[in-house]
Recover the amino acids of this structure.
């Protein structure tokens, strides 16, 4: 098939949307499909032989999106996390009759509900979300959405990449108080991810917080977690080593959907600590792969981290988490998404009148 993949971000960006789009494009290319990526710029203009059309926000993004799609003439269009670029693509496919699939990775934040419904949900042929709780929320608002769960690359994210020197350096193993338990967070430092709650880690004895990521809350966190190591954003290669070199992974986001960091942490055999809300409820199994805490109770995150950090058998949680992570690879997830795209393209082709009729 000829498949256009539309996204608000792509390489070299390091974010959840890029993680999803890259994994899906990899699989589409591996399966022999012709792919074009339409994404905001600047950045790579080719990826694994596929053209990447970069859309500038400075000059008529709608016209650029239409030109990119018309030039490629796709059989089907997949839009991930539709923002300005994705909505322009859906407007065009809806008008031209090209079938489309939307992967909605988060609740709409930049539009009112009615505006999102009219510009996204009502313009796509198939809508999927990346967490059951989001499907339930859409259902309560009268929008039907399927659930499509992301995968994880368990070959890249593996405990085999653990770096003892890096771990001991973070753990201050040679200090009078060391070694400390290295408790990490991976993700963007925005309020919507609940990162201000990481300040509770300052009250947990015997741990060393490591914050991997960047964002507007970075200075706020540095001030309240003076003992923490803040690495900034890391490339995928460095991240795989850094993640495997932690002892525990925590993520305080209460409305997470894809949960990429938690999936990658599980694949890296790390015990997980997360709130009993959002996508974490379906990923973290209490006392089996980690702990869930009550996000409405002050200090609950600190108590959960303290309990896991003090458990001499916490590695068993990580081992079980990796076992379960192996059940959902990116190959599995992308093939499932490809099945949806194939059915849309075939259904559209079957609906076309015969030539000359």
């Amino acid at each position: 098939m000829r498949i256009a993949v539309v996204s608000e971000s792509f390489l070299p960006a390091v974010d959840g949307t890029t993680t999803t789009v890259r994994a899906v494009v990899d699989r589409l290319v591996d399966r022999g499909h012709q792919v074009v990526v339409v994404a905001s710029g600047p950045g790579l203009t080719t990826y694994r032989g596929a053209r990447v059309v970069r859309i500038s926000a400075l000059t008529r993004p709608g016209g650029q999106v239409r030109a990119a799609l018309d030039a490629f003439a796709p059989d089907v269009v997949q839009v991930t996390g539709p923002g300005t670029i994705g909505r322009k693509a859906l407007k065009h496919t809806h008008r031209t009759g090209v079938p489309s699939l939307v992967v909605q990775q988060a609740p709409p934040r930049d539009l009112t509900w009615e505006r999102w419904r009219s510009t996204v949900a009502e313009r796509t042929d198939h809508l999927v979300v990346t967490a059951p709780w989001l499907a339930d929320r859409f259902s309560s608002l009268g929008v039907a959405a399927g659930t499509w769960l992301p995968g994880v690359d368990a070959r890249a994210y593996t405990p085999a990449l653990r770096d003892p020197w890096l771990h001991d350096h973070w753990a201050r193993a040679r200090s009078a108080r060391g070694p400390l338990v290295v408790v990490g967070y991976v993700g963007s430092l925005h309020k919507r991810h609940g990162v201000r709650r990481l300040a509770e880690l300052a009250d947990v004895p015997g741990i060393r917080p490591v914050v991997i990521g960047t964002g507007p809350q970075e200075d706020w966190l540095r001030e309240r977690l003076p003992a923490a190591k803040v690495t900034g954003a890391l490339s995928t290669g460095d991240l795989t080593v850094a993640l495997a070199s932690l002892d525990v992974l925590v993520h305080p986001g209460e409305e997470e959907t894809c949960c990429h960091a938690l999936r990658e942490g599980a694949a890296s055999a790390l015990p997980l600590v997360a709130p009993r809300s959002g996508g974490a409820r379906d990923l973290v199994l209490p006392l089996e792969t980690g702990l869930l805490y009550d996000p409405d109770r002050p200090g609950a995150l600190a108590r959960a981290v303290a309990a896991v950090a003090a458990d001499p058998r916490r590695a068993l949680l990580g081992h079980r988490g990796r076992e379960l992570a192996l059940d959902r690879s990116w190959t599995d997830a992308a093939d499932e998404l490809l099945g949806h795209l194939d059915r849309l393209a075939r259904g559209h082709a079957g609906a076309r009148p015969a030539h000359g009729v």
